[in-house]
Amino acid sequence: MEKLGFADRLKSLRLSKNYEQAYVAKKLNVSRSLISSYESSTRLPSVEMLIRYSQLFKVSVDYLLGLEKQTTVNVHNLTKEQIKIIEIIINEYAKLNKKID
To answer: Which 8-state DSSP code applies to residue 2?
Structure first.
């Protein structure tokens, strides 16, 4: 899998939630053009903004900076029951992988 750069990671997170730049800007209380500048690598966010991004997308700052790997599954349009089933499947595969190792 290709390693994402910082700007690509921000954009990927936004798109995985089906958010528009304007929505993220509103949630973070900044302009849409600032979000665009982060995603195009023309500006870097402050530490405070990194924290706000991590809270909005429920990821660690280390993940945003590329220091930690994290796999996400977009469950935006799934029911709670469907999400629970997916969690069970993931946990079962994790158990199987531990037995193989």
So the answer is: P
